[in-house]
Amino acid sequence: MLKLGLNNIKNFCPRAVDLFSYDNNVSSFIKYLIKNKKVAGSFRVTNISSIENQVRLWKRQLPDVTPYYAVKCNPDPVILNVLGKMGVNFDCATQGEIQLVTEKCRVSPDRIIYANPAKMVYHLVYAKSIGVNFTVFDSKDELLKLSKIPNQKFELLLRIATDDKDSMCKFSNKFGANPKDAEKLLLYAKSLGLPVVGVSFHVGSGCGDANSYTKSLANVADIFEIAPKIGIPPLKIIDIGGGFPGNSARYFGKNSPTFEDIVKTLRLGICDFRKKFPNDHNIQFIAEPGRFFVSDAVTIATHIYARKGDNPQSLYVDDGVYGTFNNVIYDHACPSPCKIVFDNNKQVAAVHTAIFGPTCDGLDQICKVENTLLPYCGEGDWLEWENMGAYTHTASFIFNGYTHYPEKFYCYISI
Hints:
The protein folds into 2 domains: 29-46 and 299-411, Beta Barrel (Lyase, Ornithine Decarboxylase, Chain A, domain 1); 75-289, TIM Barrel (Alpha-Beta Barrel), CATH 3.20.20. It contains 12 helices and 17 strands. The protein is of the alpha/beta class.
């Protein structure tokens, strides 16, 4: 199995980014940066080794499912390069993401699926012009739009809605055709001369029920059976989307399925699917994992610039929900910090703690007092936040004149 190692990563890490190798752990590396005054404010550390481990885990557990990384999850060019070098393909939703992958990371367009069911015309024209082969649709209107793109040669996947009621971030309210409408959509595509080659679905980000995959696969199987009966060439691609958790800590709650739970269910579903089409050896499974690859890889460190109170205490840090911690609002996250302690012999009792970001908006609260216990923290202390690689800084924006953006560091620490 391919392992990039530190020396190869240096070849594509931007010159403006310092790249360190540290042989202990990420927390020790963070302390090193702070102690040696390498940083003045909040920063993030990406451990490339963690990403490599996740890619290898995917290939061991789901060897017959080709991953297309969801770029929106974390579009850091260094991360994209690591994934690309390890053979992971890419799920792009916009022209900007396609340009990032092909121009900055030099990935071939045939390794991209344009996985947005509702596309802007000029984005489509661009994708076609550089040779992106696959895209998706979920309506007659989108098919008609595709048919009007001059000389377009996309192969299409029909996106169907799923039962995602147990997922934290639902998509079927926005995307996906009712499976009952699949036949008429296939016929319409045929009438327009558009080649449909498969079916896609997405059970929602933060899947709450592993059985959602098998339910959707059953709907896909029905559509695969319908296609030849109405004159459509046999379908060959099943895109099972995303929804895979990024770590073993049950990011979305103690009752949410682990990756292992989902894999066990998926293997059975894929096996049953293949049994229904025993003579079709061209069927391919792909997926669109995002947080699975990067969630654990990134740790954030924030600087406490103000405080008040004793028990409870309120802490004010230099990053918040308008920055890296927008996942509190948009991703249903409950980040859990720890105080960075430089004197290991010093023990302080924990107290209830509220943590706020740097803007003047009352909404800019990262942790609530009733859910958070930390030792007494003083102005100038630091907090460390793990599991911050997915849907965090990618959705941040400027508000209240606050423009600080966490400095980026990369390390290669074997786990």
